[in-house]
Amino acid sequence: MTLSTVGRSDAKTGSVIIDFDDNRLVSELFGEHGRHLARLEQALGVMATSRGNELIITGTRDARARAEIVVKDLYARLKSGLDVTFGEVDGAIRMAKAPKSERERGSGSNKKLQIITPKRVISPRSPTQGAYLEALLNNEVVFGVGPAGTGKTYLAVVVAVSMLIQKKVERIILSRPAVEAGERLGFLPGDLRDKIDPYLRPLYDALYDTLPGEQVMAGIESGEIEVAPLAFMRGRTLANSFVILDEAQNCTPVQMKMFLTRLGENSRMAITGDPSQVDLPMGAKSGLADALDILEGVTGISTVRFGDRDVVRHPLVTRVVQAYGARDAGLLERKSSKSENRT
Questions:
Q1: Which pLDDT belongs to residue 189?
Q2: Which of 146, 156, 313, 319 sits at a 20 to 30 Å CA gap from 266?
Q3: pLDDT by residue (tens digit) across 321-340?
Q4: Nearest in space to 82 (alpha carbons), one of 61, 55, 111
Q5: What domains are there in the chain, each with its CATH number?
Q6: DSSP character at residue 261
Q7: Considering the entire predicted model, what is its pTM?
Protein backbone atom coordinates (compact mmCIF):
# COMPACT_ATOMS: atom_id res chain seq x y z
CA MET A 1 0.00 0.00 0.00
CA THR A 2 1.41 3.40 -0.96
CA LEU A 3 1.04 6.11 1.67
CA SER A 4 -0.19 9.49 0.52
CA THR A 5 2.40 11.32 2.60
CA VAL A 6 6.12 11.77 2.19
CA GLY A 7 8.37 12.44 5.14
CA ARG A 8 11.90 13.73 4.93
CA SER A 9 14.35 14.78 7.61
CA ASP A 10 16.23 18.04 7.89
CA ALA A 11 19.43 17.34 9.82
CA LYS A 12 20.29 21.02 10.23
CA THR A 13 17.11 21.94 12.07
CA GLY A 14 16.38 18.58 13.71
CA SER A 15 13.02 18.48 11.94
CA VAL A 16 10.94 16.11 9.89
CA ILE A 17 8.96 17.54 6.98
CA ILE A 18 5.80 15.73 5.86
CA ASP A 19 4.23 16.47 2.48
CA PHE A 20 0.54 15.74 1.87
CA ASP A 21 -1.08 15.12 -1.50
CA ASP A 22 -4.60 16.40 -0.73
CA ASN A 23 -4.95 19.99 0.44
CA ARG A 24 -8.64 19.48 1.20
CA LEU A 25 -7.87 16.82 3.80
CA VAL A 26 -5.00 18.77 5.33
CA SER A 27 -7.34 21.30 6.93
CA GLU A 28 -9.34 18.47 8.51
CA LEU A 29 -6.12 16.87 9.71
CA PHE A 30 -4.85 20.04 11.36
CA GLY A 31 -8.23 20.83 12.89
CA GLU A 32 -10.15 24.06 13.27
CA HIS A 33 -7.68 26.87 14.03
CA GLY A 34 -4.95 24.19 14.22
CA ARG A 35 -6.39 22.64 17.40
CA HIS A 36 -5.23 19.13 16.44
CA LEU A 37 -1.68 20.36 15.90
CA ALA A 38 -1.80 22.19 19.23
CA ARG A 39 -2.80 18.94 20.94
CA LEU A 40 0.06 17.13 19.17
CA GLU A 41 2.52 19.73 20.42
CA GLN A 42 1.20 19.61 23.97
CA ALA A 43 1.15 15.82 24.23
CA LEU A 44 4.44 14.97 22.53
CA GLY A 45 6.58 18.02 23.27
CA VAL A 46 7.18 18.95 19.63
CA MET A 47 6.64 22.07 17.55
CA ALA A 48 4.35 21.54 14.54
CA THR A 49 4.38 24.25 11.87
CA SER A 50 2.15 24.09 8.80
CA ARG A 51 3.14 25.60 5.48
CA GLY A 52 0.77 24.92 2.60
CA ASN A 53 0.58 21.15 2.20
CA GLU A 54 3.67 20.65 4.37
CA LEU A 55 3.97 20.00 8.07
CA ILE A 56 7.28 20.65 9.79
CA ILE A 57 7.77 18.82 13.08
CA THR A 58 10.64 19.86 15.33
CA GLY A 59 11.73 18.17 18.54
CA THR A 60 13.79 15.31 19.90
CA ARG A 61 14.28 12.28 17.67
CA ASP A 62 11.83 10.11 19.64
CA ALA A 63 9.21 12.86 19.84
CA ARG A 64 9.50 13.57 16.11
CA ALA A 65 9.13 9.87 15.31
CA ARG A 66 5.99 9.56 17.45
CA ALA A 67 4.47 12.71 16.00
CA GLU A 68 5.12 11.48 12.46
CA ILE A 69 3.37 8.19 13.25
CA VAL A 70 0.35 10.06 14.64
CA VAL A 71 0.07 12.43 11.68
CA LYS A 72 0.40 9.71 9.06
CA ASP A 73 -2.10 7.44 10.81
CA LEU A 74 -4.67 10.22 11.06
CA TYR A 75 -4.13 11.25 7.45
CA ALA A 76 -4.60 7.64 6.31
CA ARG A 77 -7.87 7.60 8.26
CA LEU A 78 -9.05 10.70 6.39
CA LYS A 79 -8.01 9.20 3.05
CA SER A 80 -10.14 6.14 3.77
CA GLY A 81 -13.20 8.37 4.18
CA LEU A 82 -13.37 8.42 8.00
CA ASP A 83 -13.46 11.53 10.13
CA VAL A 84 -10.80 12.74 12.56
CA THR A 85 -12.16 14.12 15.81
CA PHE A 86 -10.31 15.42 18.85
CA GLY A 87 -10.87 12.00 20.40
CA GLU A 88 -9.25 10.30 17.42
CA VAL A 89 -6.24 12.59 17.77
CA ASP A 90 -5.92 11.71 21.45
CA GLY A 91 -6.27 8.03 20.61
CA ALA A 92 -3.53 8.16 17.97
CA ILE A 93 -1.25 9.99 20.40
CA ARG A 94 -1.96 7.41 23.09
CA MET A 95 -1.07 4.60 20.70
CA ALA A 96 2.16 6.29 19.64
CA LYS A 97 3.23 6.98 23.25
CA ALA A 98 2.67 3.39 24.40
CA PRO A 99 5.73 1.18 24.90
CA LYS A 100 6.67 -0.76 21.80
CA SER A 101 5.84 -4.06 23.51
CA GLU A 102 2.26 -2.86 24.12
CA ARG A 103 1.83 -1.51 20.59
CA GLU A 104 2.86 -4.86 19.16
CA ARG A 105 0.85 -7.01 21.58
CA GLY A 106 -1.42 -8.99 19.29
CA SER A 107 -2.96 -7.88 16.06
CA GLY A 108 -5.80 -6.28 18.01
CA SER A 109 -3.52 -3.44 19.05
CA ASN A 110 -3.09 -2.59 15.37
CA LYS A 111 -4.70 0.74 14.61
CA LYS A 112 -6.16 -0.71 11.40
CA LEU A 113 -8.59 -2.88 13.39
CA GLN A 114 -12.01 -1.36 12.79
CA ILE A 115 -15.50 -2.34 13.92
CA ILE A 116 -18.23 -1.16 11.55
CA THR A 117 -21.67 -0.23 12.87
CA PRO A 118 -24.53 1.54 11.04
CA LYS A 119 -23.64 4.93 12.55
CA ARG A 120 -19.92 4.78 13.18
CA VAL A 121 -16.64 3.05 12.41
CA ILE A 122 -14.81 2.43 15.67
CA SER A 123 -11.07 1.91 16.02
CA PRO A 124 -9.12 1.24 19.23
CA ARG A 125 -7.75 4.34 20.96
CA SER A 126 -5.17 2.53 23.08
CA PRO A 127 -3.22 -0.73 22.81
CA THR A 128 -5.38 -2.22 25.57
CA GLN A 129 -8.54 -1.31 23.69
CA GLY A 130 -7.08 -3.10 20.67
CA ALA A 131 -6.39 -6.22 22.71
CA TYR A 132 -9.90 -6.01 24.18
CA LEU A 133 -11.56 -5.79 20.77
CA GLU A 134 -9.49 -8.76 19.61
CA ALA A 135 -10.56 -10.73 22.68
CA LEU A 136 -14.25 -9.88 22.15
CA LEU A 137 -14.05 -11.07 18.56
CA ASN A 138 -12.29 -14.34 19.35
CA ASN A 139 -13.45 -15.59 22.78
CA GLU A 140 -16.75 -16.82 24.16
CA VAL A 141 -16.39 -15.07 27.52
CA VAL A 142 -14.39 -11.88 28.05
CA PHE A 143 -13.82 -9.93 31.26
CA GLY A 144 -13.01 -6.24 30.76
CA VAL A 145 -11.69 -4.89 34.05
CA GLY A 146 -10.48 -1.41 34.90
CA PRO A 147 -11.31 2.19 35.77
CA ALA A 148 -14.16 4.28 34.40
CA GLY A 149 -13.72 5.91 31.02
CA THR A 150 -11.65 3.20 29.37
CA GLY A 151 -14.37 2.08 26.95
CA LYS A 152 -15.02 -1.37 28.44
CA THR A 153 -18.81 -1.33 28.09
CA TYR A 154 -18.94 0.86 25.01
CA LEU A 155 -16.64 -1.40 22.98
CA ALA A 156 -18.54 -4.50 24.09
CA VAL A 157 -21.76 -2.94 22.79
CA VAL A 158 -19.99 -1.97 19.57
CA VAL A 159 -18.88 -5.56 18.93
CA ALA A 160 -22.33 -6.87 19.87
CA VAL A 161 -24.03 -4.50 17.39
CA SER A 162 -21.55 -5.43 14.68
CA MET A 163 -22.20 -9.15 15.19
CA LEU A 164 -25.97 -8.58 15.20
CA ILE A 165 -25.79 -6.68 11.90
CA GLN A 166 -23.66 -9.47 10.41
CA LYS A 167 -26.21 -12.07 11.63
CA LYS A 168 -23.54 -13.79 13.72
CA VAL A 169 -25.92 -13.57 16.68
CA GLU A 170 -29.70 -13.21 16.75
CA ARG A 171 -30.03 -10.80 19.65
CA ILE A 172 -28.21 -8.58 22.11
CA ILE A 173 -28.90 -8.83 25.84
CA LEU A 174 -27.62 -6.02 28.07
CA SER A 175 -27.75 -6.37 31.83
CA ARG A 176 -26.41 -4.87 35.03
CA PRO A 177 -27.20 -5.03 38.74
CA ALA A 178 -30.13 -2.63 38.94
CA VAL A 179 -29.45 -1.27 42.42
CA GLU A 180 -26.11 -1.14 44.19
CA ALA A 181 -27.02 -3.46 47.06
CA GLY A 182 -29.61 -6.04 46.15
CA GLU A 183 -31.78 -4.80 43.27
CA ARG A 184 -34.59 -3.47 45.52
CA LEU A 185 -36.68 -2.31 42.57
CA GLY A 186 -39.92 -2.20 44.53
CA PHE A 187 -38.85 0.90 46.41
CA LEU A 188 -38.59 2.95 43.22
CA PRO A 189 -41.54 4.86 41.71
CA GLY A 190 -43.27 3.93 38.46
CA ASP A 191 -43.72 0.70 36.52
CA LEU A 192 -40.95 -1.81 35.86
CA ARG A 193 -39.56 0.14 32.88
CA ASP A 194 -39.46 3.34 34.95
CA LYS A 195 -37.71 1.53 37.79
CA ILE A 196 -34.88 -0.02 35.79
CA ASP A 197 -34.24 2.55 33.06
CA PRO A 198 -32.05 4.92 35.14
CA TYR A 199 -29.69 2.07 36.01
CA LEU A 200 -29.47 0.87 32.41
CA ARG A 201 -29.10 4.29 30.79
CA PRO A 202 -25.35 3.91 29.99
CA LEU A 203 -26.18 0.81 27.96
CA TYR A 204 -28.88 2.66 26.03
CA ASP A 205 -26.41 5.49 25.34
CA ALA A 206 -23.95 3.07 23.76
CA LEU A 207 -26.71 1.55 21.63
CA TYR A 208 -27.89 4.93 20.33
CA ASP A 209 -24.30 5.85 19.49
CA THR A 210 -23.94 2.86 17.16
CA LEU A 211 -27.48 2.35 15.81
CA PRO A 212 -30.12 4.78 14.48
CA GLY A 213 -32.71 5.57 17.15
CA GLU A 214 -35.58 3.98 15.26
CA GLN A 215 -33.58 0.78 14.85
CA VAL A 216 -32.87 0.66 18.59
CA MET A 217 -36.55 1.10 19.41
CA ALA A 218 -37.61 -1.47 16.81
CA GLY A 219 -35.05 -3.92 18.17
CA ILE A 220 -36.30 -3.45 21.73
CA GLU A 221 -39.92 -3.89 20.64
CA SER A 222 -39.13 -7.09 18.70
CA GLY A 223 -36.91 -8.55 21.41
CA GLU A 224 -33.83 -8.45 19.18
CA ILE A 225 -32.36 -6.09 21.77
CA GLU A 226 -33.13 -6.74 25.41
CA VAL A 227 -32.10 -4.54 28.31
CA ALA A 228 -32.85 -6.06 31.70
CA PRO A 229 -31.61 -6.12 35.31
CA LEU A 230 -29.45 -9.03 36.37
CA ALA A 231 -32.20 -10.57 38.48
CA PHE A 232 -34.15 -11.35 35.30
CA MET A 233 -31.41 -13.66 34.01
CA ARG A 234 -32.13 -16.46 36.47
CA GLY A 235 -33.53 -19.65 34.96
CA ARG A 236 -32.78 -18.69 31.36
CA THR A 237 -30.50 -20.22 28.73
CA LEU A 238 -29.19 -17.50 26.45
CA ALA A 239 -28.50 -19.03 23.02
CA ASN A 240 -27.47 -17.25 19.80
CA SER A 241 -26.92 -14.08 21.80
CA PHE A 242 -24.28 -11.52 22.65
CA VAL A 243 -24.77 -10.93 26.38
CA ILE A 244 -23.15 -8.03 28.25
CA LEU A 245 -23.05 -7.66 32.02
CA ASP A 246 -22.08 -4.15 33.05
CA GLU A 247 -21.01 -2.93 36.53
CA ALA A 248 -20.19 -6.54 37.38
CA GLN A 249 -18.27 -5.50 40.50
CA ASN A 250 -21.67 -5.04 42.16
CA CYS A 251 -22.70 -8.67 41.64
CA THR A 252 -22.44 -11.16 44.45
CA PRO A 253 -20.53 -14.41 43.78
CA VAL A 254 -23.86 -16.26 43.59
CA GLN A 255 -25.20 -13.80 41.01
CA MET A 256 -22.03 -14.03 38.95
CA LYS A 257 -22.14 -17.82 38.86
CA MET A 258 -25.81 -17.66 37.89
CA PHE A 259 -25.03 -15.26 35.06
CA LEU A 260 -22.08 -17.19 33.66
CA THR A 261 -24.05 -20.43 33.62
CA ARG A 262 -26.71 -18.82 31.37
CA LEU A 263 -24.32 -19.13 28.39
CA GLY A 264 -26.00 -21.06 25.59
CA GLU A 265 -25.07 -22.38 22.17
CA ASN A 266 -23.47 -19.88 19.76
CA SER A 267 -23.41 -17.15 22.40
CA ARG A 268 -20.81 -14.77 23.74
CA MET A 269 -20.53 -12.92 27.01
CA ALA A 270 -18.74 -9.73 27.96
CA ILE A 271 -18.45 -8.91 31.67
CA THR A 272 -17.24 -5.41 32.53
CA GLY A 273 -16.54 -3.72 35.82
CA ASP A 274 -14.26 -1.61 37.99
CA PRO A 275 -13.06 -3.47 41.09
CA SER A 276 -12.29 -0.14 42.79
CA GLN A 277 -15.96 0.98 42.73
CA VAL A 278 -17.79 -1.78 44.59
CA ASP A 279 -21.12 -0.63 46.04
CA LEU A 280 -22.00 -3.85 47.82
CA PRO A 281 -22.59 -3.77 51.60
CA MET A 282 -19.45 -3.54 53.71
CA GLY A 283 -17.79 -6.94 53.99
CA ALA A 284 -19.63 -8.50 51.02
CA LYS A 285 -17.36 -10.06 48.42
CA SER A 286 -17.62 -8.87 44.84
CA GLY A 287 -18.66 -11.51 42.36
CA LEU A 288 -16.32 -9.97 39.79
CA ALA A 289 -13.25 -10.37 41.98
CA ASP A 290 -14.37 -13.88 42.90
CA ALA A 291 -14.83 -14.89 39.25
CA LEU A 292 -11.46 -13.46 38.21
CA ASP A 293 -9.76 -15.62 40.86
CA ILE A 294 -11.67 -18.80 40.07
CA LEU A 295 -11.67 -18.62 36.27
CA GLU A 296 -8.08 -17.59 35.64
CA GLY A 297 -6.60 -19.84 32.96
CA VAL A 298 -9.91 -21.43 31.91
CA THR A 299 -9.92 -22.12 28.16
CA GLY A 300 -12.31 -19.87 26.23
CA ILE A 301 -12.25 -17.12 28.85
CA SER A 302 -10.13 -14.02 28.31
CA THR A 303 -9.42 -11.22 30.78
CA VAL A 304 -8.28 -7.78 29.63
CA ARG A 305 -7.16 -5.33 32.32
CA PHE A 306 -7.30 -1.60 31.66
CA GLY A 307 -5.25 1.02 33.48
CA ASP A 308 -5.44 4.77 33.95
CA ARG A 309 -3.42 5.25 30.75
CA ASP A 310 -6.38 3.78 28.84
CA VAL A 311 -8.91 6.39 29.96
CA VAL A 312 -10.34 7.90 26.76
CA ARG A 313 -12.59 10.57 28.25
CA HIS A 314 -11.48 14.12 29.02
CA PRO A 315 -7.75 14.21 29.96
CA LEU A 316 -8.75 15.43 33.42
CA VAL A 317 -10.50 12.09 34.03
CA THR A 318 -7.13 10.36 33.65
CA ARG A 319 -5.62 12.65 36.26
CA VAL A 320 -8.55 12.05 38.62
CA VAL A 321 -8.15 8.27 38.30
CA GLN A 322 -4.40 8.58 38.90
CA ALA A 323 -4.92 10.77 41.97
CA TYR A 324 -7.37 8.33 43.54
CA GLY A 325 -5.09 5.42 42.67
CA ALA A 326 -2.14 7.14 44.36
CA ARG A 327 -4.26 7.82 47.45
CA ASP A 328 -5.42 4.21 47.64
CA ALA A 329 -1.87 2.93 47.19
CA GLY A 330 -0.74 5.20 50.01
CA LEU A 331 -3.48 3.91 52.32
CA LEU A 332 -2.50 0.31 51.62
CA GLU A 333 1.15 1.13 52.31
CA ARG A 334 0.31 2.80 55.64
CA LYS A 335 -1.90 -0.14 56.68
CA SER A 336 0.89 -2.56 55.83
CA SER A 337 3.39 -0.48 57.79
CA LYS A 338 1.13 -0.38 60.86
CA SER A 339 0.61 -4.14 60.67
CA GLU A 340 4.36 -4.76 60.56
CA ASN A 341 4.93 -2.44 63.54
CA ARG A 342 2.42 -4.40 65.64
CA THR A 343 4.27 -7.64 64.98
A1: 58
A2: 146
A3: 667 767 766 665 665 565 55
A4: 111
A5: 5-97 (3.30.1370.10), 126-312 (3.40.50.300)
A6: T
A7: 0.76
